[in-house]
């Protein structure tokens, strides 16, 4: 089992660092400085960088880290200028005897990808800005239908799967979740615990109980969304789209 550590960056970003045998993988280095400091402090060689999508707070540190670690392999989809390996759907990655797979998970951006790392302790998903605890990313260059499909795909994974989102948005997301499901005691409990950060990673089982964007099939969510918008959603995709719109204005 590798050590997986969140390195805080900017106001609320996490740069996840996976380390094994003196080598490290860094996920979405928006800023090189805190990553370099951690690598030096723990005497680690940066072997790989995994980029989920092109936004600057996920890629801003790429050039400096590549300059400092010229042998480092950079995985990213075709829209990532600094990538050394094009990582689209189905690409397989090896690190320290472990395997990771790539999923195309569009919605937040149309080229967004996720990294699924298999370890002896289970599955670890680096989901960038697609899933947050109790929430999901905003739609930028993808579509809300794509985002719904990407979250449904995550929801097909084993319930003990761990998710490693790139932002600490949990408390704000839970306040919206409580607005959607005022009687959900799991959301109230999670909100009380969200004062202690990092709140991440989170299991899929936990998200299924508290994340409205994974609860679009729940009758209470359907009714509440209909009540808030004044129209009954036609199907689950419509519930999801309305939730995303309501959250944008919450
Ligand atoms: Zn983003």
From TrEMBL:
The Metallo-beta-lactamase domain, residue ranges: 12-167
Known cofactor(s): Zn(2+)
Summary of the function given for this chain in its UniProt record: Thiolesterase that catalyzes the hydrolysis of S-D-lactoyl-glutathione to form glutathione and D-lactic acid.
Protein species of origin: Uruburuella testudinis
Keywords: Hydrolase, Metal-binding, Zinc
Entry keyword annotation includes Hydrolase: yes
Homology family: Belongs to the metallo-beta-lactamase superfamily. Glyoxalase II family.
Protein name, entry field: Hydroxyacylglutathione hydrolase
Binding of Zn(2+) 1, residues: 53, 55, 108, 129
GO terms, molecular function: hydroxyacylglutathione hydrolase activity
Subunit structure: Monomer.
Domain of life: Bacteria
UniProt pathway annotation: Secondary metabolite metabolism; methylglyoxal degradation; (R)-lactate from methylglyoxal: step 2/2
Pfam family, one: HAGH_C
EC code(s) of this entry: 3.1.2.6
Catalytic activity: an S-(2-hydroxyacyl)glutathione + H2O = a 2-hydroxy carboxylate + glutathione + H(+)
Top EC group: hydrolase
Details of cofactor binding: Binds 2 Zn(2+) ions per subunit.
Stored NCBIfam families: GSH_gloB
Binding site for Zn(2+) 2: 57-58, 129, 167
